[in-house]
Structure formats: C-alpha cells, structure tokens
TrEMBL record:
InterPro entries: CoAse, Nudix_hydrolase, NUDIX_hydrolase-like_dom_sf, NUDIX_hydrolase_CS, NUDIX_hydrolase_dom. Its cofactor is Mn(2+); Mg(2+). Keywords: Hydrolase, Magnesium, Manganese, Metal-binding. The keyword S-adenosyl-L-methionine does not apply. CDD domains: NUDIX_CoAse_Nudt7. GO terms for molecular function: 8-oxo-7,8-dihydrodeoxyguanosine triphosphate pyrophosphatase activity; coenzyme A diphosphatase activity; metal ion binding. It comes from the Bacteria. It holds the Pfam family NUDIX. Coiled coil: none annotated. It is an enzyme of class 3 (hydrolase). Its EC number is 3.6.1.55. This is CoA pyrophosphatase.
C-alpha cells in the first residue's frame, strides 16, 4: 500500500532520482518528440496512490478509443516536461508546475514515428480533474498496488517481430505498448530496478 501523502511523494521522487535514464542519442533522431505524464493522485476510494490513465476519444484521428497516458507531441521549442504539463492541462484540466515533477523515465521509440518521454508528476488536487471530451472519453485511477501485482503484465511472441509484446492486464482490457511499457518501467523504478523497455514490442495494429 502506498498512501497518497508526503512520505510517498518523497519515496517516489527518490526512486526516480536514483534511476539512471538512458542517454539521449548523439545524432538527431528522425522520430518526432512527444511526452506523456505519469500523473500520481489519490485513488478516490481511499488514501492510496494511483496513476491516471485515459481512454482516448472516438473522434480523434489517431489511436482513437485506445488506452493512453495523458500526453502528446512536443511543440516547437518545447521540452518534454513542458509538453507533458501542457497536455495534462489540455486533456484533464490539471494545471501543474515544474515543482510537481518527480522525474523522467527512458524515452520510448514507437512504431508510429514518435520518441516518447515519460514525465512523473504529483497531482495533489485530484478534485480539479476535468476531462476534455474532445480528447478524452474517460479517465481512470489505477492504484499503484494494481501495477505491482505479479500478474499485472505478461509478454507474448508475435510472428511479425523478434521482440516480445508487453501487455498490461487492466480489468477486462489488455493495454499494450507504448502505454504498457511505460507503466511497466515505472513499476520497476518503484521497486528500485533499472529495467529497460525500449525493446518491448507494440502489437501490429499500433504500427501506424
């Protein structure tokens, strides 16, 4: 159990600080930069800590109706932290500053041409969450205890790739990479493990 309090915030910030991100590539990447927020808040049904997961609106042009962490493409001149905070505000109405950032995880390259930076943030005022219906169909609070279960994730082989596909089991849904990979690495960081996820595969339907 991880109560949503100052002690948990400090512990998670320390775990993120102890995590050594993979260095940025020396050569410019052809991938478009993007960022997502691993936004931590109260579960709403108790005092536990949860992360926010969204179901994307059916009206969106790309990846409609899929599970996702709040986030999107970086604007010109924008850092991943700035992009993650902006997207969190645009999608969920949460206005957070840089002081709420606890750390960053490894960049994850997607099959659809993006390099995603996960930014861990502390969202104390969960009452302020107001999903933007143009982007978000629903928002869900996933208790950290859920992602720390032994059976929360599995890995399967597909004929189209030599890399393993990661899957996060959430209720009756299967959540795939990149979202599943980023949540999995966060779970590993919480446990003090420096587990890399960039080689974890996405399902074929996400290769566009």
């Amino acid at each position: 159990m991880r109560p949503f309090d100052d002690a948990t915030r400090r512990n998670i910030a320390e775990a993120c600080a102890a995590f050594a991100r993979l260095p940025d590539a020396v050569e410019p990447s052809a991938l478009k930069r993007a960022a997502v927020a691993i936004a931590l808040t109260a579960t709403g049904e108790g005092d536990d800590t949860a992360l926010l997961l969204t179901l994307r609106a059916a009206s969106l042009r790309a990846h409609r109706g899929q599970w996702a962490l709040p986030g999107g493409r970086c604007d010109a001149g924008e850092t991943p932290v700035e992009a993650a905070l902006r997207e969190l505000n645009e999608e969920l109405g949460l206005r957070l500053g840089s002081g709420e950032v606890l750390g960053q995880l490894d960049d994850y390259p997607t099959r659809s041409g993006y390099l995603i930076t996960p930014v861990v943030v502390w969202a104390a005022d969960s009452a302020a969450i107001a999903p933007n219906p143009d982007e978000v169909a629903s928002v869900h609070r996933i208790a950290l205890a859920t992602i720390e279960r032994d059976d929360a994730f599995d890995f399967v082989a597909i004929p189209e790739s030599a890399r393993r596909v990661i899957r996060f089991h959430h209720q009756r849904s299967l959540i795939h990479a990149p979202t599943a990979a980023l949540i999995y690495q966060f779970r590993e960081v919480l446990a003090g493990r420096h587990t890399r996820v960039r080689e974890l595969e996405q399902p074929v339907f996400a290769w566009k």
